[in-house]
Amino acid sequence: MRVLGLDYGTKTVGVAISDPLGLTAQSLETIFRKNPTHLRSTLRRIEELVNEYEAEKIVLGFPMNMDQSKGERCRETEEFKNMLEKRLGISVELEDERLTTVAAEEILIESGVRRENRKAVIDKIAAQIILQQYLDRQEA
Fold this sequence. Notes:
- This protein is α/β, with parallel strands linked by helices.
- The protein has one domain (2-139): Nucleotidyltransferase, domain 5 (2-Layer Sandwich).
- Helices cover 46% and strands 26% of the residues.
- It has a five-stranded mixed β-sheet, sandwiched between helices.
- A hairpin with a 3-residue loop joins strand 1 (2-8) and strand 2 (12-18).
């Protein structure tokens, strides 16, 4: 069963996909949008990816605060989750994403990616980390 992982941000959505066995996550792409409130094309692209990879589930990063409280970004993410479920008709699970962007930044630095090039790929790396966290918990 393939699972799509998403790192939902105000201007981008990082995307990752699991292998067919659901063991490993690979970064896929970053979806960019000009206006944070215009989600139609973002939802359409995610639907295309779900269909292309025959994903049966989506794991969506959930941006809780470090003290485990929920802020405005959590509310927006829950609304996005509801939109995805309504449009796609598949399960969308929330996964704690605290520090995933920091971890993605560290991976890119260690890989020698120049600062000006990191912005283009950091969200899809964060999505990969979110998805891998989820997959690892499923195996345990």
